[in-house]
Design goal:
The chain is α+β, with helices and mostly antiparallel strands. The protein has two domains: 117 residues, Gcn5-related N-acetyltransferase (GNAT) (Aminopeptidase), CATH 3.40.630; 177 residues, Gcn5-related N-acetyltransferase (GNAT) (Aminopeptidase, 3-Layer(aba) Sandwich), CATH 3.40.630.30. The protein contains ten helices and 13 strands. Strands 1, 2, 3, 4, 5, 6, 7, 8, 9, 10, 11, 12 and 13 form a 13-stranded mixed sheet that branches. Helix 8 links the parallel strand 11 and strand 12. Helix 6 packs across helix 7. It is globular, with a radius of gyration of 21 Å. The structure holds coenzyme A (COA). Coenzyme A binds next to strand 5, helix 3, strand 6 and helix 4. The site of coenzyme A (COA) has 20 residues, from strand 5, helix 3, strand 6 and helix 4.
């Protein structure tokens, strides 16, 4: 069998590649999450065809004839000025093709490319369900940078009374704080203040990762929304405005992918330091979960990723009934050291 590596510098628009990648992606997904539905090819096509102006996504596909047996995607944000040294990495080889050096071949391609575009650090992630990922990372002398818990809330276990109490305590502060509800995209006239709001996420712990406070731009906000819309992902946001200052104090967002309708994917949640201590985090999360319970009975569970060191967020999530489902680790590898390891 001859396996070749095909490189795509940019968005992939070829329908036959969409089909082949979809089969690969579903086999990988099934290994990780056997209970999940299959991802339809349309969702894969929308993912591969995305090409935001602020982020390049070069890909490498390991092809055996017309079958994709492995793949790597590098995410290079060109507008996050404080993190131009790094590239986030997705990498996988189908279970039946492992331990034949193919993962090594893929990451070698990625590392050479990263060096050619001046990125010095790769940040891949692994999942506790598939120990091969962590073995591979240790073999390459990567360092674990951040361990995150993927926490899941069974909606059947939700304490509705407690959520009503949290929401009522928030609403009781209506002379000071206004709750905003946004379905889908933020109104255009709010984009600048939403860019400012994103900075609250710089307070989330990053462990030992060589990851600096992010720089956010209007492109980040607008293109992320466009990406969700292209994939028909429903997005719900609650935000809170501090009325005396007029500032947005915090927000939470959640997405539902129509391919996995039973699963709500919690996105960001953050409240700026100066507005903490008023129960706003609990208020936001309670409004969201009450909304989902009322309007989306098809959602039977919600997932959220939290750094294991994030005591504040975990405190709220545990009280809501979120429980650890599995762990994921973000690793970091210096590109030059990786290339040296690979050449020995
Ligand atoms: C991680 C992954 C990409 C490795 O792909 P692969 O093609 O099997 O990797 P290689 O054959 O190049 O492995 C290189 C070395 O890594 C180590 N390794 C890889 N898998 C291992 C395992 N299951 N147990 C122990 N060591 C392992 C070994 O040292 C191996 O060399 P050897 O086979 O000569 O002993 C693959 O297991 C995978 O897709 N896992 C799921 C997705 C994932 O976790 N991705 C994150 C990767 S950053």
């Amino acid at each position: 069998m001859t396996v070749r590596v095909e490189h795509f510098a940019d968005a992939i628009t070829d329908g036959s590649i969409h089909q082949a990648y979809n089969a690969f992606d579903n086999e990988m997904l099934h290994e990780e999450e056997p209970t999940f539905a299959r991802r339809p090819v349309g969702d894969t096509a929308a993912m591969l065809a995305q090409s935001p102006s602020h982020e390049r996504r070069p890909r490498w596909l390991l092809m055996d004839g017309s079958v994709v047996i492995g793949a790597a995607t590098l995410y290079l944000d060109d507008e996050d000025a404080a993190n131009l040294h790094l590239g986030w990495l997705d990498l996988g080889v189908l279970p039946g093709h492992r331990r034949r050096g193919l993962g090594t071949r893929l990451i070698g391609n990625v590392a050479r490319y990263a060096r050619s575009v001046g990125r010095t650090t790769l940040m891949p992630h692994t999942n506790s369900f598939i120990p091969a990922g962590a073995h591979f990372m240790r073999h390459l002398a990567a360092e674990p940078g951040l361990v995150e818990g993927v926490n899941e809330l069974q909606m059947a276990d939700l304490d509705l009374k407690l959520m009503e109490e949290w929401a009522a305590a928030g609403r009781a502060q209506s002379d000071r704080f206004e709750l905003l509800r946004v379905d889908g995209s933020w109104p255009d006239e709010m984009i600048d203040e939403v860019v400012a709001l994103q900075y609250v996420m710089n307070d989330a712990p990053v462990g030992d990762l060589d990851f600096n406070d992010q720089v956010f731009t209007a492109d980040h906000v607008i293109e992320w929304q466009e990406e969700l819309a292209a994939r028909n992902i429903s997005r719900f946001v609650f935000a809170i405005r501090d009325l005396p200052s007029g500032r947005l104090a915090g927000y939470t967002d959640l997405g539902i992918n129509p391919s996995f309708r039973d699963l709500g994917q919690q996105g960001d949640t953050g409240v700026f330091k100066e507005f903490r201590g008023h129960g706003l985090g609990k208020w936001l999360k309670a409004e969201m979960v009450l909304r989902i319970a009322a309007d989306h009975p098809e959602v039977t569970r919600i997932r959220t990723e939290n750094a294991q060191s994030n005591a504040a967020m975990l405190g709220i999530n545990h009280a809501m009934g979120f429980r650890l489902h599995h762990e994921q680790t973000i690793w970091q590898i210096n590109v030059e050291e990786l290339l040296a390891t690979l050449s020995t």
